[in-house]
Design brief:
The chain is an alpha/beta fold. Strand 1, helix 4 and strand 2 form a beta-alpha-beta unit. Helix 1 packs across helix 3, helix 2 packs antiparallel against helix 3 and helix 11 packs antiparallel against helix 12. InterPro entries: ACT-like_dom_sf (IPR045865), ACT_dom (IPR002912), Chor_mutase/pphenate_deHydtase (IPR008242), Chorismate_II_sf (IPR036263), CM_dom_sf (IPR036979), CM_II_prokaryot (IPR002701), G/b/e-P-prot_chorismate_mutase (IPR010957), Preph_deHydtase (IPR001086). Its EC number is 4.2.1.51, 5.4.99.5.
Length: 365
């Protein structure tokens, strides 16, 4: 077969682009028909289905790894598919998603990674405001940080999960790369560094080695840090979107102490996603006080059933007259599975307080 000339290759790309666009338009028209079908059936709620979305993305990645796969990575294919799904879903049921603002935060990046760019994002100032927004219906879903591989858990999110009626509908794993942003052009010119406390924890060694004399001022978010640095001077620890948003120079890139630095975010809403076969169940419970081995008794059913417990965290019970703790537990499986149901019943029977926070698809990308 003769090699293509440059002109031949461009003609072929144009033809493929035409075909891709026709297929995307056809998919969008079917999405509109889905919306009409659901309206006829009396389904007037939002049409976002976390389980369905996860299944579509996993199939796209499986196709890419199979015989029909190409040079693009699975993650790139999944991100392209996510944007097509996001655009089509906006024709069925436009979504509003609340996140921890202001603009330029990692939580905004997590929201767009999970829902795509065709949603309306709503920045809020605190985690509890996100929960209230979704509970009231002002937002369809919320995105909240829950833990970082270096800085640990986000306590405000855990505390809010105990008392809310909302459910965890999904999770997002976001690799976090910190950058030092400023109006200045050199590190020596920076007198103050602004950042969220988690970001300071994740860049402490780098800052000690290179910015030891600079003041460190804690602010509510990295987006806020970038805004302050753009107005007052100094430098901010934030992501690249914040640099673009506030017109800041990048004095140093990837300053996180651990190159594998990752933050996990939760999607909160009013849905209970159906099982996909690759799910996570989150629960919170307290053990009976003054009983030796109470925590062991609480967790033993998971071990006996050989269920993989992927996470456990503790938080003190506020207002308790004696020391008591909530235990936040994640395990692989869905609450509707027969095996999981039996284990959850046993944990519930051994707990003083018990609440399932949600069963949801494991993060796909």
């Amino acid at each position: 077969m003769p090699e293509l000339t440059l002109q031949d290759a461009r003609v072929k790309i144009d033809a493929l682009d035409d075909q891709i666009q026709r297929l995307i338009s056809a998919r969008a028209r079917v999405a509109q028909e889905v919306a009409r079908i659901k309206q006829r059936q009396g389904d007037t709620g939002d049409h976002y289905r976390p389980s369905r979305e996860a299944e579509v993305l996993r199939r796209a990645m499986a196709r890419n790894s199979g015989a029909d796969g190409g040079p693009l990575t699975d993650e790139v294919i999944a991100r392209l598919m996510r944007e097509i799904m996001s655009a089509c879903l906006s024709l069925e049921s436009p979504l509003t998603v609340a996140y921890l603002g202001p603009e330029g935060t990692y939580t905004q990046a997590a929201a767009l990674k999970h829902f795509g760019d065709s949603v309306t994002v709503r920045p809020l100032g605190a985690v509890d405001e996100i929960f209230r927004d979704v509970e009231s219906g002002a937002a369809d879903y919320g995105v909240v940080p829950v833990e970082n591989s270096i800085g640990g858990v986000v306590t405000h999110t855990l505390d809010a999960l105990v008392h809310t009626k909302l459910r965890i509908c999904g999770e997002v794993m976001l690799p976090v790369h910190h950058h030092l942003l400023s109006r200045e052009t050199s590190l020596a010119s920076v007198g103050t560094v602004y950042a969220h406390p988690q970001s300071f924890a994740q860049t402490r060694k780098w800052l000690d080695a290179r910015m030891g004399k600079a003041e460190r001022e804690v602010v509510s978010s990295n987006g806020e840090a970038a805004r302050i640095a753009s107005e007052k001077g100094g430098a901010a620890i934030a992501g690249l979107p914040a640099a673009r948003l506030y017109g800041l120079n990048i004095l140093a890139s990837n300053i996180e102490d651990d190159p594998g630095n990752t933050t996990r975010f939760l999607i909160i809403g009013k849905q209970d996603p159906s099982a996909t076969g690759e799910d996570v169940t989150s629960l919170v419970a307290t053990a009976h006080r003054n009983q030796p081995g109470a925590l062991f008794t609480l967790l033993k059913p998971l071990a006996d059933a050989q269920i993989d417990m992927t996470r456990i965290e503790s938080r003190p019970v506020r207002g308790s007259p004696v020391p008591d703790f909530y235990f936040f537990i994640d395990f692989g499986g869905h609450a509707s599975d027969a095996k999981s149901r039996a284990v959850l019943d046993q944990v519930r029977a051994n707990a003083a307080f018990f609440k399932i926070l949600g069963s949801y698809p494991k993060a796909v990308i």
